[in-house]
Amino acid sequence: MRAYHLESFGGVEGIRLRDSGPATPEPAGPTGIVVSLRAASLNRRDLMILGGEYPLPGVPGVVALSDGAGEVVAVGDAVTRFAIGDRVSCAYFPRWRSGPITPDAFDQPGCTLDGMLAEYAAMDEQWAVRVPDHLTWEEAATLPCAAVTAWSALTDGEPLIPGQTVLTLGTGPVSLFAVQFAKLLGCRVVSTTSDAQRAEQLKALGADEVVDYVRTPEWGAKVKELTGGRGADRIVETGGPETIDQSVRASSLHGQIVLLITGSARKAGIEVSNAAYASSLVTVRRVFVGSRARFEEMNRAVSAHALHPVIGRVHSFDEVHAAYRGYASSPPFGKVVIRVSS
By mean pLDDT, which of 28-37, 39-48, 279-288 is the weakest? Predict the structure, then answer.
């Protein structure tokens, strides 16, 4: 079995393709399953793990990537959740089933556990989640991190009400999923970007309004204007230190800012001006992907609405280094996917 391992950290040279055991692994115990992986996808966290910048240090030699999807090809004697032929993915936090996360559930594939950039993955049945039948393998491989994060951002905390406004920032995968899910939930969407072509792509995806944050640096006031002075009820804050002040200014009186990123190259921490702080009674909360139950809940919504993730670029299994480099230097509009097998 071939798999890409993180042998060292710092650059793509540390990602090594090597044989990792028998051609087809056996289930790891009576509740284990073996998945023939068909596709995997990259997230920003994978670049951070490779660069040694992720809060949870990567284990040397671990198989890369948290996100992937494939077909169950073997099951242990006591497996009840899946059968051979089922289409599955692995949860981002395999040990976090539901409710609030606990300190013993922080292990993640592609970081502290072997991940999805391999021909096969062996895992416990409790770690796996069925993926929607209408999705291609490439689309299914995009779900565990970015999609679940966006879903949790919109459905955790105070519930959104149809007709409310969601603000998304930029065109990263979490933001794109947030646009799709917000429309699915019956909300109005305002998005930001500085690229005219991506503005049109955001509108095609469902955004009702798009604000150019370079031409309009005080875009928080523009969001207020576009919402008749009310502001955004939910802000999916993917910029962190660079954008938090304007996000606070864009909020409705009792809005929620869901903060996903807390560090940047230029600013070490979160700072909000007194003027922005005084402009509303906004609540700020953190989201870190979501539980297996959230993943399953999201998949039911994806299936019911026949939603399709946005894919920006697809690489072959032999182009992993190019996939990493391209994602780091010029991330596309949509997910970067690696096709493992057909």
Answer: 279-288
**Domain boundaries in the chain?**
2-145+290-339, 157-286
What are the residues whose beta carbons fall under 8 Å from the beta carbon of 271, sequence distance 6 or more?
241, 244, 245
Q: What is the CATH number of domain 157-286?
A: 3.40.50.720
Please say if the pLDDT value at position 263 is more than 80.
no
Other C-beta atoms closer than 10 Å to the C-beta of 95 total: 18
Distance CA 181, CA 213 (A): 23
Q: How far apart are CA 217 and CA 26, in angstroms?
A: 56
- pTM score over 0.90: yes
Question: Domain 2-145+290-339: which CATH class?
Answer: alpha beta
Q: pLDDT-derived band of residue 158, with 50, 70 and 90 as boundaries? A: confident
Res. 198: pLDDT tops 70 = yes
